[in-house]
Design brief:
globular; two-stranded antiparallel ribbon; ABC transporter involved in vitamin B12 uptake, BtuC; mainly alpha; about 5% strand
């Protein structure tokens, strides 16, 4: 007879709440990275694997500016335009020469950019992980329930990400540039035929996308190690977000990012304990971590089976 274990000791309500907030935090960071990436793909049909390095560079720039100014807020504010300038420099020097190439060549070229820039940060900043402190005003924790406190800074990340999401939604839906971006994501050749400089529009989208990814990197610098290659994993998750949400859709990117963040975090935290309800503990310990790492990809497969264009694709792509 197989031994069964009661998962109640580990699947407690406080732990679930903590992991839920951690999932929301991951979700808003994924949105910041995925928002620009989905518009770039939607407007220019350009696959940019190097978008994750903007996240990494944002973190490195924030650390550098913190060392120069001693102020967390000044370092983040300075990292934003610096990330945009660096992203635009990459666009002018490399990416615009790839627009007319096929997707395989774009993938190979931008993968090369990843390798080059990962080595570049090792040369400039060294291979050792860097960090920056959490500002005093955002240190400490907030009580959520008896025996449970949650860090103020992680709440600040969630709030900042949601504020950016609202501002981006207003920009895309209520401004002329936003209208052109939405039109370009729906039918870029038609927009170009109407006299709009689509490459200039792309530069605007690319620059803001680079800045948003850099902002995400700057915000995580106080809670994660800043090191070469840190953007690679979040890039994979960002592509999952784009596929689930729908190419070219800001709303789709936001909803999918929250879904992926929460499901990935809760899956990694509780999958083993859930399997212990039906399997022997030893079997659950073997299967749980492997299944948890597959959860978001299973979600992506299900969404693609039901809605091949994603949950909320840009109009004209459904």
């Amino acid at each position: 007879m197989c031994e069964r274990a009661d998962p109640g000791d580990t699947m407690s309500t406080p732990l679930f709440v903590v992991q839920l907030f951690n999932g929301l935090q991951l979700g808003v960071l994924l949105f910041l990275v995925a928002a620009g990436l989905t518009l770039v793909f939607g407007v220019m049909d350009f696959i940019n694997l190097a978008h994750g390095v903007q996240y990494m560079l944002g973190a490195y720039l924030a650390v550098t500016f913190y060392r120069l100014t001693g102020s967390f807020f000044a370092s983040v504010l300075l990292a934003l335009p610096a990330s945009m300038v660096f992203g635009l420099a990459l666009e002018v020097a490399i990416f615009r020469h790839l627009y007319e190439r096929d997707h395989l060549e774009q993938v190979l070229a931008t993968f090369g950019v990843i390798l080059f820039l990962n080595q570049g940060v090792k040369i400039v900043w060294g291979a050792a992980p860097l960090n920056m402190p959490i500002p005093d005003i955002l240190s400490g924790s907030i009580p959520l329930m008896e025996g449970l406190r949650y860090p103020v800074y992680r709440f600040a990340i969630i709030a900042a990400g949601l504020a950016v999401a609202v501002a981006l939604y207003v920009f895309v839906t209520a401004t002329r540039v936003g209208m052109l971006v939405r039109a370009g994501a729906t039918n870029a050749p038609m927009v170009s035929a109407l006299g709009v400089d689509i490459k200039r529009l792309f530069m605007i989208v690319f620059g803001f996308g680079a800045m948003l990814a850099g902002f995400a990197g700057a915000m995580v610098a106080p809670i994660l190690s800043v090191e070469p290659g840190m953007g690679d994993q979040i890039l994979i998750l960002a592509f999952v977000v784009i596929v689930i949400g729908g190419i070219g859709s800001i709303r789709g990117a936001f909803i999918a990012a929250l879904l992926v963040g929460v499901i990935d975090t809760l899956g990694r935290s509780f999958m083993t304990d859930m399997l212990r309800l039906v399997l022997a503990p030893s079997t659950a310990r073997v299967i749980g971590p492997a299944l948890a790492s597959m959860t978001i990809y299973l979600l992506m497969a299900i969404v693609l089976a039901v809605r091949p264009a994603g949950l909320f694709p840009a109009k004209g792509r459904a």
